[in-house]
Target: Diguanylate cyclase
Amino acid sequence: LILENDLHKALDNDELFLEYQPQIDLQTGRITGVEALIRWQHPEKGWISPGTFIPIAEESGLIIPIGQWVLETACYQVKLWEKEGLPPLKVAVNLSLGQLFQQDLVEMVQEVLVKTELEPQCLQLEITESMTINIDQMTTALRNLKELGITIAIDDFGTGYSSLSYLKDFSIDCLKIDRSFVQKIQSNSTDEALVAMIISMAKHLQLNVVAEGIEEVEQLAYLMASNCETVQGYLFSKPIQPKLLQENFHEIQ
Ligand code: G
Ligand code: G
Ligand code: MN
Ligand code: NA
Model:
């Protein structure tokens, strides 16, 4: 409850900020997008990880105003980079379950796009497989979002226990292979096979694919050989503050 009260204040007191992790297209070697990741610098308690405070935000309902702030900040930042001469980037923003089923989600996203003047195709929303539990509700929410012209990615793909049938009904554009598989490339042949299979399946379904959590050059080599489109991980860059990303843009890619 203490943390919940603090989190409430955090939003008003500018204690929350976003870091951005580049996504690299393996064909061109260029940064084509970024994932926005929330951070909290507590005035007394110091750095608190999103793994700790996002669940509190979800339980308390604070995820709604926080989620709106994240979306607006991320869209504004990408538009700003564009104005400052960086090539156009796509920004991926994580959505919580509570946001997906928020009544006015579509209106909120639409308002943010209008306000920030970001082209809808530059925005990707990330949901997880666990959100596919209520397929009907999910389908409706995603279809409405898609009408705005934005894209949808499945985050942590491969870790959920859901059926894959949602892939044919849902308006999914991209699969993000969970880092637990990527990190076992070279040490576990089953994980290697799973990575190759997900990439191949994505191609057959005409979905984009992003491999997450890539840290080693050996993993990169395997992903290139498997025709993976896009990668994201510490090998290229950790999530970093916008200024740093802008300054190092050409070194990262
Ligand atoms: O960046 P990091 O590894 O610390 O993120 C930890 C977790 O927090 C990840 O699962 C990530 O998806 C989640 N997360 C980070 N930023 C956001 C956000 O803006 N909204 C939501 N809902 N989750 C986030
Ligand atoms: O759940 P989601 O995929 O949204 O969370 C992304 C999380 O993965 C972030 O917390 C980010 O900091 C973390 N991350 C990104 N790249 C790497 C990586 O190469 N290695 C590890 N261990 N974590 C990573
Ligand atoms: Mn994510
Ligand atoms: Na993930």
User: Anything to note?
Assistant: Residues 63-83 form the longest helix (21 residues). The pocket of sodium ion (ligand 4) is lined by residues 155-156, 176, 178, 212 (CB under 6 Å). The chain has twelve helices and nine strands. The first strand starts at residue 16 and ends at 25.
